[in-house]
């Protein structure tokens, strides 16, 4: 069993806020937790954050993690015309690749129209994690010719924070590879953005990492999935 721990790195609760408490206060604690648990993950970062917080990107790389692309401004791609979609990908890829190789992509809000997949291939991406198994659109998607490995997110991020008795049976039943994502959340907005956040969320994440370790599951960066001999990566 492979588990990909992924983090979406963006300003706070887009589109509602423009602050960056998650980056400034949350990220150091999150990186410390990954280090303590010896877990290496994939951090999907917006170009905007990479420009404003270069030291954060450097700290993520220092931790042995993969940096991936999360668009430039965190605008959902299904609201963009083709030219703007291309420039979002180009601008974010350019700034992120100043730090190191970037070959994995996840669209903001996990909304990425099939018509733009070719833009990712043209920009040198090898893996896309913009689909989500918990969304109806994933199960009713049409066929698509692509060389990209498409590895959907398994679960919405709030599942990682629900009470343990509910959480463990869900985590234990996910198909391989389990792709889990962590979001920074604000304490004032929608209920799914505020319940059990902060220290409670960190504690739950640590429990989740230990839960999978006890199961014998292996934490894998998304760019290392194929190298780990994984066979069910969708194309
Ligand atoms: Zn996001």
Number of helices: 9
Oligomeric form: single chain
Which spans of ≥5 residues are poorly predicted at pLDDT below 50? none
- Number of distinct beta strands: 8
Basic shape: globular
Distinct small-molecule ligands in the complex: zinc ion
Order of helices and strands: EHEHHEHEHEHEHEHHE
Question: Helix fraction?
Answer: 25-40%
Alpha carbon gyration radius: 17 Å
Which secondary-structure class do the elements indicate?
Answer: alpha/beta
What share of residues are in beta strands? 5-15%
Report the span from N to C terminus: 20 Å
Average pLDDT works out at 90
For the sheet with most strands, the description reads:
5 strands, parallel
Describe this protein with a few key phrases:
235 residues; 5-stranded parallel β-sheet; 3-stranded parallel β-sheet; 9 helices; 37% helix; 13% strand; binds zinc ion
Summarize the structure.
This protein has helices at residues 21-36, 47-52, 54-62, 82-96, 117-122, 136-139, 164-172, 191-194, 199-215; strands at 2-9, 42-45, 66-69, 104-105, 127-128, 149-150, 178-183, 218-219. With 235 residues, the protein is an alpha/beta fold. α7 (164-172) crosses α9 (199-215).
Explain what you see:
This protein is 37% helix and 13% strand. β4, α5 and β5 form a beta-alpha-beta unit. It contains nine helices and eight strands. It is α/β, with parallel strands linked by helices and 235 residues long. The strands form two sheets. Strands 1, 2, 3, 7 and 8 form a five-stranded parallel sheet that branches. Strands 4-5-6 form a three-stranded parallel sheet, with no helix packed on it. The structure holds zinc ion. Zinc ion (ZN) binds next to loops. Zinc ion binds next to loops.
